[in-house]
Amino acid sequence: MGERRIKWGNVIIFLLIIAAGIAAYFSSGQFSSRGGKGEPVTFDKSGKDGKGGDDEFDFDKEPLVWDDYIIPPSGDEFIMGLDSWIGGTPVLIGLNREYNRDYGLDLRVEYIHADADRIKALAEGKIHATEMSLPSFMRFQEQYSGAGIIVGITDFSRGADGIVAKTEVKDINDIEDRRVSYVKNGTGKFILNKFLRLVGLRYQDIEPIERESMTEVIEDLRRGTADVIVSWSPDMNIAINEINAARPDSVKMLITTKEVPNLIPTMLVVNKDYAMNNTDKVESFLKTWYASSKYILGRPEKAYGKLAELMNECQEYGEVSKADVEESFRDVKLMSLNDNLSYFGLSTEDNKVDLIIDDTVETWKRYGDLDFDFTIPELMYDRLFLAEMGGDDELLVGVLDTETTGSTDEEKEFEKQDEKSIEENTEKVAKVDIPPVYYDSGKATVKAESLPVLDEVLEILSQFPEYYLIVDAHTDSVGSDKFNKLLSQNRASEVKKYLVQHGVNENRIVARGWGEERLLVPNDVSEEDKAKNRRTEFVLTREVEQ
Hints:
alpha/beta, D-Maltodextrin-Binding Protein, domain 2, five-stranded mixed beta sheet, 22 helices, 15 strands, 40% helix
């Protein structure tokens, strides 16, 4: 028999046909080589995934496998895993303006929209850095402890997240026994935890409705299935407008992160092992990042137009206009290098990051969502990278138009209020759940054992810098009405004096003494009942919009 020859031309043609088929399959939208599903993420003006993004992640399930399609790093390439959150877009400016080349960095972006997938890719070394909200990063520490270290803050949510309620819900305390809908796990649940904790409520005190997506949450409010929802912009703004258009004044904004400015930071996280072995690359990455942030903060008009163009080009944000970008940045505080140096305590003596981390951990722990030991040293955030850049004047932001950029925090000016005007000009946000304040018998002097309670009040006021504080002191029925009225007023004034001495604006606090006018137990014969009536209450209020 003659030897059969292989016709290599036919083989090559056959292989080319197979390759074309594979290429057609991937380009059809089944998968994306950028690390996410082929269908573009709907840009919802807050920058979050229109389908719910990382907040849809179920922490009890295994992460998805989209990271298998990430092109692995080659040579000295530095890869950042990016969500569609607006706070991550400085990297797009950095690549466009080639800041990375200025600092010798071969930078590439991979879009990975689920937090679970990004942290997994980071732990496995498939990406070198990512951005992630601090509450979500905390939730992954049990599964990926030590995988990443925090090297900076990209932005803070300043109005992009909030709680919407039926108009009949008066304040945060009034959430008790209400039906509350939220996307389970993720940032929405963290926000709910925070405010339940503030007023001393637990999940047992509400009717929780856990949903998979924000679409379901909004529908709960629209149908009346829920009395309260935890949402984000623009979903919450659109929902309020649409529902009130159909049923006037039926729902309202109860609270937003604009009123709690340090609640939800998004962190820059780098693979720990990579950072220890490639400090020069991490420093180059951070320099690229803060050069880009400086450009956006300093030239917003030009930057917003360029960002809209870049976001449309990559097709990961849906269709975006310059107005969309501008609106999104109004709901966040983009952090400059200056801001980071301040928050990490490198340009001031005040390290705010420790306090924010502590509060985040305690908020999760309060409801059993973090049931493992977790301390700041385990988090291993590293200030050294920021410290190295502190003297680089080219990266520092100068004097800015704060109305345009929102880049500088300004202390709120409080109008002086009295007992009557505070009722007319402000509305109650929450009566704070806090331990009792004890005084010397028959006197206004606060006992030493209660000073830590007043320090807790100071911490709450620092977390809610937009709010007034009403200090309401009450007595039992023992003694004359006149004596009790004066005693309670003096006690409230003594508390105010302590808070003012520790830095609180005097105009921000109204001290009121009620004596025995508002007894919780009318016939306080027993010592237990008398103790219930002898109380000091702390009420947070905000200015009523005129």
